[in-house]
UniProtKB/TrEMBL annotation, chain B:
Residues of the ABC transporter domain: 6-245
SMART domains noted in UniProt: AAA (SM00382)
Keyword ATP-binding: yes
Record-stated family: Belongs to the ABC transporter superfamily. Macrolide exporter (TC 3.A.1.122) family.
Protein name as annotated: Putative ABC transport system ATP-binding protein
InterPro entries hit by this protein: AAA+_ATPase, ABC_transporter-like_ATP-bd, ABC_transporter-like_CS, ABC_transpr_LolD-like, MacB-like_ATP-bd, P-loop_NTPase
Annotated organism of origin: Winogradskyella thalassocola
Keyword Heme in record: no
Any Pfam family: ABC_tran
Length: 406, 247
């Protein structure tokens, strides 16, 4: 009852000073709106990175030869030839957490068909590669294990390669192309995937059995990578450990030796990217929080002026029976009402701004519920925190002095 | 004999100003009985304001006793004093002290807002009654700026009546008003007094004292005179004697 009355008094005071209240609120409104919009942008970019990485196969695991020292000279990881087919076979035989695995050898060269030619990359893999990369075929078929065994000269090509070496639109399946002068029979075309997060065209590839690429194109017998996919995204970190252990045994490494290979899951990639965008989010939110803080100081300022200006009113309220606590509550409620109303308007403005950013700037955004809850809570706390000092000051006034105040 | 509402005995109030002690009240004793209309007079520096603050429970005496309606005010906390002011005293000020941009009825409701025993409906009802009593039943929703000085003071009087106080305490309540309006206000006070309301009126104007039933004159913090007025003037009659205004 009493609190309700104080609430009425506070509302009345706010209504009597509409313009001033609105201007005071503006600080809070802008603060909250920017916090929400900034968090939405941050969350949005994080989410878009996550989805595009997932599209590349989120439970993918990549094993590469690592940097090592040979005869006292530190060697670059790419020139190491420490990853071999027997490593792949060991992993395939021993691991329990992998659903697919494939050796990978890669090289660059010119794809030629008649008078058309196009520089592209060739990947030597096994048939499981498509499952690891989560990509299907739009026509034709994938080569088989038997074709791998016999090192057949067959290839599956991406759309970009098709566009460039079959410019007159004929069906590439069944046609012959040459890669670095080695003839390949095209047996399938990959589904279009477009660019990945790093701006790499995922359709600009030629895929052939790894045996063929090893022998006919690269003339090597080591592997550049081994690719695998964990049975699930959650198991990926475990699978990384398991593969590492298998390889340490395989490479006869003792406890004192460092790994001479690297095993990475996409999870790491995701978290690396996420932490970058998280950093950005923190920065944006920090800036936004400062404006919220300034909004709070604005409330304190106006409440302080209001207390000074209404000293006589406070004296009267005390004379007719208002207790110190009543006066305190009155001003505190006023401050909280200003900040919460500002908060509501700020949330609405923030959501509006987010829609605007998404629609007109084409930035990915995602409004997290927690950002609304947090900025709202911050508002209420701001009201209490910055309203407290002036309200306290009002309640501590001596009624006699306050009544005589001019 | 009616009962004493105010009992004051050997009341002293001292202020410390730096190293000096100022004795504002130097041992004052008097009683005010129910239904009395008392004026407290004195020049400035006589201790009149200090007396008023203590009577109004806005201040505490240094020593001596002050009892209002059976409650000993000394030793009460700030909050308890606020409750006494809310339930037992009606204040009227020289400068009206109405809330600006707030309607008459809301101004009158103000003391009841701080009394959680009074419901919203009762608050409104009592505020209307009080305003009718002071002759402003037609102006419930006017704000102070739409009212004349005399009408504003009437609103203030209604506000002092609304909590059914044991005593109305007026501080120079006619100080800001012209003679005609002062007489109107004084005649309203006399009317209210006739209905049994105890009024204590602090003033320095001698002619105001002639409308009261008793006058206490303070000087240098002591009671110099305390006499019953056997020839109470009627403010209504005085008003009639004033030259007519052409309006």
């Amino acid at each position: 009852m009493r609190l309700l009355n104080l609430f009425k008094i506070a509302t009345k005071a706010i209504i009597l000073n509409k313009t001033r209240t609105l201007l005071t609120m503006l600080g809070i409104i802008i603060g909250v709106a920017s916090v929400i919009a900034m968090l939405a942008i941050g969350e949005g970019s994080k989410e878009s990175i996550r989805t595009s990485i997932s599209a590349m196969g989120s439970n993918m695991i990549t094993i590469k030869a690592g940097a090592d020292t040979r005869g006292g000279v530190r060697q670059e990881a790419s020139v190491m030839e420490s990853l071999t087919l027997s490593d792949y076979e060991a992993i395939k035989a021993q691991s329990t957490l992998l659903s697919y695995s494939s050796p990978v050898v890669e090289g660059r060269g010119q794809v030629i068909n008649g008078s058309s030619n196009w520089p592209s990359s060739i990947y030597g893999v096994n048939p499981e590669y498509l499952n690891i990369k989560v990509v299907g075929l739009q026509s034709g078929s994938m080569f088989t294990d038997a074709e791998v065994k016999t090192a057949s000269k067959v290839a599956v090509i991406g759309q970009t390669v098709v566009d460039n070496v079959f410019p007159d639109g004929q069906d590439p399946v069944g046609q012959m192309i040459r890669f670095n002068n080695i003839p390949f029979k095209v047996i399938g075309v990959l589904e279009e995937k477009g660019e990945n997060t790093f701006g790499q065209d995922q359709d600009d590839v030629v895929i052939a059995p790894y045996t063929t690429v090893q022998k006919r194109i690269l003339a090597i017998d080591h592997l550049n990578q081994i690719m695998a996919s964990a049975i699930s995204e959650e198991e990926a970190p475990e699978a990384v450990l398991e593969v590492s252990n298998i390889l340490r045994v395989q490479h006869k490494l003792t406890d004192s030796n460092n790994d001479d290979f690297t095993v990475r899951s996409m999870e790491e990639l995701i978290s690396t990217f996420s932490s970058t965008s998280e950093m950005l989010t923190i920065l944006l939110v920090a800036v936004a929080s400062i404006s919220l803080l300034i909004g709070g100081i604005g409330i304190m300022n106006i409440m302080y002026v209001s207390v000074k200006e209404r000293t006589k009113e406070i004296g009267l309220r005390m004379a007719v029976g208002g207790k110190g606590s009543d006066i305190l509550m009155q001003f505190l409620i006023e401050a909280i009402l200003i900040s919460i109303t500002g908060g509501v308007l700020g949330v609405l403005l923030g959501l509006g701004a987010t829609v605007f950013i998404e629609k007109f700037l084409n930035w990915p955004t995602s409004v997290a519920l927690y950002s609304i809850v947090i900025s709202f809570a911050v508002c209420a706390v701001t009201g209490i925190f910055f309203g407290w000092y002036p309200a306290r000051k009002a309640s501590a006034l001596d009624p006699i002095t306050a009544l005589r105040y001019e | 004999m009616s009962k004493a509402i105010i009992k004051i005995e050997d009341l002293k109030r001292e202020f410390t100003m730096g190293t000096e002690t100022v004795h504002a009240l130097k041992g004052i004793s008097f009683d005010i009985k129910e239904g009395e209309f008392v004026t407290i007079m004195g020049s400035s520096g006589s201790g009149k304001s200090t007396m008023l603050n203590i009577l109004g429970c806005l201040d505490q005496p240094t020593s001596g006793t002050y009892e209002i309606d059976g409650v000993r005010v000394k030793d009460l906390s700030r909050n308890e004093l606020a409750t006494i002011r809310n339930e037992k005293i009606g204040f009227i000020f020289q400068s009206y002290n109405l809330l600006a941009r707030t309607s008459a009825i809301e101004n009158v409701e103000l003391p009841l807002l701080y009394n959680s025993k009074v419901s919203t409906e009762e608050r409104r009802k009592r505020a209307i009654e009080a305003l009718e009593k002071v002759g402003l039943g037609e102006r419930l929703h006017h704000t102070p700026s739409q009212l004349s000085g005399g009408q504003q003071q009437r609103v203030a009087i209604a506000r002092s009546l609304v909590n059914n106080p044991v005593m109305i305490l007026a501080d120079e309540a006619t100080g800001n008003l012209d003679t005609r309006t002062s007489y109107e206000i004084m005649s309203l006070f006399q009317e209210l007094n006739k209905q049994g309301i105890t009024i204590t009126f602090v003033t320095h104007e001698p002619d105001i004292a002639t409308f009261s039933s008793r006058t206490i004159v303070l000087k240098d913090g002591q009671v110099m005179q305390d006499y019953n007025n056997h020839n109470v003037q009627s403010a209504a009659n005085e008003l009639a004697k004033l030259p007519k205004q052409d309006d």
